[in-house]
Amino acid sequence: MKTTKHLFIEIVILNLLFIAFGYYWLADIKNSNDTAIILLFVLACVLYIGLSILERYPHKFNYPVKATPADKTLLHQLGVNTVRYIKLTLTLFFTFYIIATAFALPNGWIMTGTILFFIIIMGILATGIYKMFGANTK
Question: The pTM is what?
Answer without folding.
Answer: 0.70
